[in-house]
Predict the structure.
Amino acid sequence: MDKTIIELIDSTIKFVWEFEIARDYDNWWLLKEDSLKNALYYHIRSKLERIFEDHNIRIYTEFNDDTFKGTGYRPDMVIATVDEECEEEYLGKCIKECLCVIELKHKGGYVGHKDIFSDFEKIKGYIENPDIKCDRYYMATIWECKDKPVTWARKNAAWAKGKLTELNASYCGENGDIKFYVHPH
């Protein structure tokens, strides 16, 4: 895929997180993880639909086809290209290239951190699995706790470098407000 398109998708995902998802959160659209997934899907698709159609790019949720088939993994969301010449009856067999993998967590309370760390282990597994071909990974986390801006993966984690971008939110803003922020590794 053209690097310009990958960069456009990347900058759009980051923008959507910091501004659209933050606004949805403030306006009570995000109750749990599924509503977060739906909002992220909606905003990314709305902003990039024309580009996606022109380049046969699609967003799929709960994805377990292509390079994820048989791995035991099922990402919350992927952005992938579809082979328009594919003659398979099942669309899942027509995936040409996985461009982005997105995992999501929406948790409250301090015990929720265990589930968040679990998804980071899942992403680490994706990245370290030579059979899974994808260049960009995102972990979108709303953690409804008071905390300073944090990265969940170690800042010097070799497996994350150049591959993982954290999309985080927690009550770390001035006056204890929730803040949405991005940390590329």
